[in-house]
Amino acid sequence: MAKLSQEDLLAQFEEMTLIELSEFVKAFEDKFDVTAAAAVAVAGPAGAAAPAEAEAEQDEFDVILTGAGEKKIQVIKVVRELTSLGLKEAKDLVDGTPKPVLEKVAKEAAEKAAESLKAAGASVEVK
Question: Is the pLDDT of residue 40 over 50?
Fold first, then answer.
């Protein structure tokens, strides 16, 4: 297999969904026995011990769908994009609100998912 350049790797990651990228990171961590979260903690600003601990505790967020709104079909489409669920599973998730769409994801991923769902007309909580 030919060695890929950074640009080639970034292009591949750019095409992945959030779920696929999350699964890749987990597989990478398992394969090389590393943790991606450790690099974030080191790069964070130095401050008091208590705020740093509180920030470290909340590094995983859940995106909870609390209502589908008037555009249920659009919400189902967004749920499918975010989760890679099938049509029936995504519809069941939207019908059974409140339900978590994504669990234990990074803050940025949770915010992007919440924005996508809100744009489709859903009501969303990020915890």
Answer: no
